[in-house]
Write a structure and sequence with these properties.
It contains 22 helices and 18 strands. The protein is an alpha/beta fold and about 625 residues long. It has four domains: about 5-190, Rossmann fold (3-Layer(aba) Sandwich); about 210-305 and about 525-545, Periplasmic binding protein-like II (D-Maltodextrin-Binding Protein, domain 2), CATH 3.40.190.10; about 315-325 and about 415-515, D-Maltodextrin-Binding Protein, domain 2, CATH 3.40.190; about 330-415 and about 585-615, no CATH class. Helix 13 (about 365-375) runs parallel beside helix 14 (about 385-415). The radius of gyration is 41 Å and the shape is elongated. Keywords: Cell membrane, Glycoprotein, Membrane, Receptor, Transmembrane, Transmembrane helix. InterPro entries: Insect_Ionotropic_Sensory_Rcpt, LBD_receptor.
Length: about 625
Amino acid sequence: MNVSKIYASYLESKLIGVQAEDANQYVVRALKHVIQDVFAQLSATLIITLATSDAQMDKWFGNVVGNLASTWNSVSVQMLHVNHLPHVPGRKYCNLLLVDSYKALLSTQITEDNADSDDHEYYFIFLQARDALIPAELQQILNHCLNNFWLHCNVMVQTAQMEVLIYSYYPYTSQRCQSAQPQLVNRFDGQRMIHAPMFPHKLRQLHQCPLTVVVWNAPPFVELKWDERAGQMDAIGFEVTLIKQLARHLNCTLIWHNVTLETVATYQKNWGDESQPMSPLELLMKRHANMSVGNFRKTAGRNDKLTSPVAHYYAPLVATVAIKHFQFGQLTLLYFPFQSCVWLLLLVALILHGLIYMWRWRPIGLQVLELLLGVTLVRLPRSWLQRVIYAHWLYGSIPLRVVYQSLLFHFIRLQLFETLPYSFEQLLASNFRGMCSSNILSMLREMPQVAHNYDSYISIPSPYDEAVLDALHQMGDGRYFAITGLDPSVAHLTATNRQRSYHILSQFINLQQVVIYMPKHTYFKELFNDMLRNLDASGCIDFWRRDAFAEYSRRTLQQRSLFQLQDDQQEQRQNEQLRQLIGIYSLMGTLYAVSMLVFCAELLCHRLTKRKTERRLL
């Protein structure tokens, strides 16, 4: 039916507002075909919405829906009558909308209902208007579809000649980009649609149309550089390689939009201030950009505002701690060569011999300790029993002293460490404090382990893991550990020649997903999902990741001059030799101190024995 047909009926003295029954049935058959052969294949439910500004047209739409209700039986239908029923909120996936103008389409509020969903809905709009008004109304409706990323959006019209035509738009064509030029995609011949499918694929290629990508310098994911030949900024890195491959597949060009990401607090402070640069989230939400890359981790807060395809990289968060905190102390190193049972047996034997000597030969009781420490005796005892005990004690202690001294100097040379921790909870229990970027800390706040000990963490005002590792290195002897990504940590420690000075814990703190964020209802989510799955299955993504991180480490090493590397190695050797000397001198000092104590004890015992002897003589 068409208003022009009604007007023609009036001129022919027929009933006003009544169209010939064959024309009505023609429209009903077209809509029936759409419901049974199109929507029934997409979903088990269908939303039919009626919205008009004219009572006569509203009555005719009701008559059409009544005829449809007697013919379908394959789907569950929910009827929404905008003019007679209150608004029903909620997402609407498959939609058949009967409207007489663009204004009536806006009154359905379907755009607001589907604003927070990520997937593409299906919209089949039956526009009923006079032939003279159809082009303008059709253009407005398709512009609305384009601006709200309604990719699957078809508009059906009926002309005065009783033709049922299906129009849609292609956002990217060889003539224009991001345009909603109406194109005839189908026609009803009375039994079926001439072309299939009803919703054609519109993104097979983008005809070199530009896509804006929000990037920031986050090596080795994204590294920004200036291309002298092209006279513009270019980017390299793991995610850049991935995006360029997707762009090559889509036949589109890329425009890099550089933003400087400092802290989350800075962007929250400037949120909505038009005089300040917009954050990456704002750029995507306001649709000034098509996507963003640069180690963008998936969070619940971002998912509420943006959409993303499947994750192309899983970023394990690990704890990195300096190994020097777990070196054996001087006192610990003294008793480490022997196990506890050996020291216990030695102590029991020493006490037993001491008790025997204190009971029978008190004046020479400390000679047992002298023999154990390797001190020579001033004179041998007269008793052969004492000489046998001394010989047994001397020959029994010599192997112990030789083995002990050999192991002790060997361990000092090797620089032994205590058992290294495997979880960050052990570090927190040992009074360590964690440091990470403000972005990561805001994400970790959702973890119960972090929320319970939130005061044990400090944030670094930088989004880069390399800055966190450098801050940890500058802390020196402070009891801190860094929370960073595994691959950036390994690459940076290797590039700075610090991999031997730090230990990366084997247990992950968290496993975060790195994704490509896009605006809600973006055209490219489903397309990117398919391409990313294919690239991941072929191993390309993993290969590009390993190649990008290896190239970043190699390039960073080349940038460091040979003089700096030699200085670092020489300083490391000097520190190692200095630690060895300190250990040896500490051991010698400890042994001399023990010898002095033994000497003082002997001197005291000698004086006490001399006084007792003098008293007996008197």
